[in-house]
Amino acid sequence: MDALRYIAKRLVLMIPILIGISMLTFFISHTIPGDPARLILGPKADAEVLEELREKMGLNDPIYVQYGRYMAGLVQGDFGDSTYSQKPVSEDLKRYFPATLELTMFSMVITVLIGIPFGIISANKKDKIADQLTRFMALIGVAMPAFWLGIILLLFFYLQIGVLPGSGRLDTWVSPPTHITGMYTIDALLTGNWEVFRSALMHLILPGVTQAAVTIGMITRMTRSSMLEVLRSDYIRTAYAKGGSQNRVLYGHALQNGMMPILTLLGMTFGHALGGSVLVESVFSWPGLGKYAVNAITYLDFPAVMGVTILIAVLFIMVNLIIDIFYQVIDPRLKYD
Amino acid sequence: MLRRFFASPLTVIGFVFVLVLLVLALFSPQIATHDPLEVNITNKLQPPSDEHIFGTDEVGRDIFSRIVYGSRISLKIGLLVVLISFPIGTILGAIAGYFGGVVDQVIMRMTDIFLSFPGIILAMSIAAALGPSIENVLLALAVVWWPWYTRIVRSSVLSIKSSEFIEASRAIGANPFRILFKDILPNSIAPASIQASLDLGFVILAAAGLSFIGLGAQPPSPEWGAMLSSSREILREAWWAATFPGLAILFTVLGFNLLGDGLRDVLDPKQR
Amino acid sequence: MALLEVKDLKQHFTLKKGFLGDKKVVKAVDGVSFYINEGETLGIVGESGCGKSSLGRSILRLIEPTSGEIKYKGKSITELKGKQLKDLRKEMQIVFQDPYASLNPRSTVKAILEAPLLVHGMTNKKERMEVIESLIDKIGLRKEQLNQYPHEFSGGQRQRIGIARALTLKPKLIVADEPVSALDVSVQSQVLNLMSDLQGEFGLSYIFISHDLSVVQHISDRVAVMYLGRIVELADVDELYNNPQHPYTQALLSAVPVPDPKQKRERIILQGDIPSPINQPTGCPFHTRCPVATPECKTEVPKLQEKTFGHWTACIHV
Fold it and tell me: Whose CA is closest to C93, among C101, C105, C82, C102?
């Protein structure tokens, strides 16, 4: 019961944040000179036609009226029409989002599988050579411009050796699997289509690894410091003193308690990965939200830019909410405050 | 203190990287071997050689010289963004933490909005709205960066606010502003300044990223992200055009990171 | 006329609880009255959580009293604001418990001692230095130590710096909130003696707050015993220690070790813990633990009354 109340409260608290975000992006993008009507019709358009389109698009109304109209649509899932593709932004988002989700989830899986074990090893072997090495690699990962790493990987694995594909989601001769989730690897698995699965997975590797490089660095560092804190605590020393084996203490006691801050960081990292997708998708021509956003920017397609911004914000907030709720479930000490 | 600072080899490495960056930026004309903007089509796509140690790009410009001049742009963005957002964030954080109540609520809800989703996305949409230029990227990054300092400063102010020495200042009749600026800020600024030194690198990284997707510096500016962006067209022919600007960014971010970690070890030994 | 009179002072804190804000009230100080004369030391003893620190802070107006009246030299100070409140600061000062937390770690001793003078508009640097130098001489520091930072001093030295800071404005009254309880026993007496010396020299009055009965006995002229936000007994120091009337005071004193092993004293052990100040018991606040409680104690709130000359007790059985 308390849990439901807590979730409801958190959902209510999301509203002002979302309003804030939408206002911020809306007002910035609408107070700036630049005429979407002119962009649609081109520089040689007739003044009358231009005025007519402006009127039709509501560009002549005061800005708060425009904002009100936008918000009224937004609560019904209407993000307005893309000024570039002329289609509803929500439709575009639906089409591009699964690709981004697939890429981000794939990179998060790599991140967790590599980052957490390395963080634990690093903490357990504090100041030994393994620790030094891990910390250095993690640091490089954090400082690495992901878009550059992408280019270098592309150069090596695609252009030089040619073992991995370097752009898009599927080989040109493979047709996409039946649409279920929109994530090709998962859809291919669900339909048992191995050729498509293989192709989709191969295409995921380079962008996924690129994106994971940064987040692995973040997770490794956080896991290490979190584990160090736990390992220093009295109950771990007691566990060792009682004669508990290394592995039992490490994975039985320490990890359980060290997991908490790591979980929170995973949420933040997920946001980072979502943000990073803009750059990584652009390197690998990955047809996701990032690529869509960059295109939209190029064509001053503000409804599209705002749509991506708001969608990513909602996603990020939701992920963190889920983690917070999960937190409450695994840590009995926390009360729903 | 200085000895402790330089005790770690990693800190020394970071210091050297940052120093090199500073020297490159300050003495670009002396260090560069060519004019960074000079086009020489007959000399295009030359691999690294004695004449062009990092090779030339698609219009024959010397990549080494471009990177040298690019350090000015990057350093300028890093410094300006931090110099704008750090004081704003710090002061707002101090006010929020010290005065509490409605002021605190308003300021913190504002930071919530900014921190509730990836900064790069917000910076991207702001920069996109303002129009592609390096100044707008600078502005966009400053807009998304201050809330981090507000958060950090607020939490350290909160932990210091109830100290007895603050009560002592109230007991002698000091006004809130004296207490804020003389007692609270000097004691709560360390964690935020550590963050600021790390951020110098991250701001440069973010700015390069925005330039990479076409929002920041425009060609033919020798900005590192923009250079990387145009290198994609010639990836097959000229690996050097992509490699060196990226390394420049990596070393810069790494340098500020190591320096910041070193600062943390000295100023805030508990954090380790 | 008494230097300071406190009448029915209450200090309640509201705790916000829950989303809809069902409020709970902590009655840290709940109707305290006493006076203090010039040059006198009033000791206030009680267990931790009895509200003695809140009492000290609300007298100084560091926290706003909920109700009641505080009179300084016959004038009410409960409503003072702005300039007048600032002027009051020159009259009353505070010495804190923790010598590590009460000095700004980033200020030199000089800056710490200079701050009160600057705040109160002593613009002449030479004058300021005269005040500071004469003070540090009194607390036994050297002039060269003025440019050092708090962490370079021992706990006892720091506490003496804290005392010097309280004295810069030449106050008449000092609230000392557990000024020695964070110090080693060997250092405690040094600081206590310094405080006694300064009292004579400056004609100070002290409100000396402590949980330590022997320290309070050593320095006080009169002693008030607090329990759950109220004074339960108040008397001259010798009278109170030799002839305690309130069962709570008796229990406290029975726990103090006696230097003479032949002297037998029965130890009264109190049952249970001190109740939470959020859910105070009805009637006499002490009845839940009192060895002599009767059914009336649950309903009747005992008033602090002068049962014998100069000896005030709040207990219906005395």
Answer: C102
| Binary contact (A305, B257; C-beta < 8 A) | no
Give counts: helices (H), strands (E), chain B.
Answer: 13, 0
| In a shared domain, residues A185 and A271 | yes
**Contact call for residues B55 and B241 (beta carbons, < 8 A):** yes
A119 in a structural domain: yes
In chain A, which residues have their Cβ closer than 8 Å to the Cβ of B231?
151
Burial class (CB in 10 A: 0-12, 13-18, 19+), B68: buried
- List the one residue out of B49, B1, B13 whose CA is nearest residue B190: B1
Q: Residue B252, Cα to own-chain centre: how many angstroms?
A: 10
Task: Spell out the SS3 assignment of C202-257.
Answer: HCCEEEEEECCHHHHHHHCCEEEEEECCEEEEEEEHHHHHHCCCCHHHHHHHHCCC
CATH 1.20.58.2050 fits B17-32+54-248, yes or no: no
Sheet with C75-76: strands ordered across: C24-36, C4-15, C67-72, C75-76
> What residue type is assigned to position C125 of the chain?
K
Residues of B in contact with C104 (CB under 8 A): 165, 169, 182-183, 186-187
Domain closes at, from A42, A75, A108: A75
* Beta carbons of C28 and C14 less than 8 angstroms apart: no
Number of domains in chain A: 2
Are B213 and A282 inside 8 Å of each other by CB? yes
C171, C93 in Cβ contact below 8 A?
yes
Domain span holding position A43:
13-75
C101 and B170 in contact by Cβ < 8 A?
A: no
Distance CA A14, CA B158 (A): 25
Q: Residues A200, A153: one domain?
A: yes
Q: Which residues pair with C67 in a beta bridge?
A: C10
Domain ranges (residues) in chain B: 17-32+54-248
Q: Do B228 and A282 touch (CB under 8 A)?
A: no
Residue A82 lies in a domain: no
Closest CB from A143, A302, A313 relative to B257? A143
- Answer whether B169 touches C (CB < 8 Å): yes
Q: Read out DSSP for C102-139?
A: SS-TTS-HHHHHHHHHHHTT---HHHHHHHHHHHHHHT
A65 with A146, same domain?
no
Alpha carbon C151 to its chain's center: 26
Q: Does B26 touch chain C (CB under 8 A)?
A: no
| Residue A130 domain-assigned (yes or no) | yes
CA C312 to each of CA A282, C218, C235, C302: distance values in angstroms, whole numbers, following the listed order: 83, 21, 6, 12
What proportions of chain B, in percent to the nearest 5, are helix, strand and coil?
75, 0, 25
Tens digits of pLDDT across chain B (272 residues) = 677 777 778 889 999 999 999 999 999 999 989 899 888 888 888 899 988 899 998 888 999 999 999 999 999 999 999 999 999 999 999 999 998 889 998 998 888 888 877 788 888 888 887 878 899 899 999 999 999 999 999 988 988 888 889 989 999 989 888 998 888 888 888 888 888 988 999 999 999 999 998 888 888 899 999 999 999 888 888 899 999 999 999 999 999 999 988 888 777 654 43
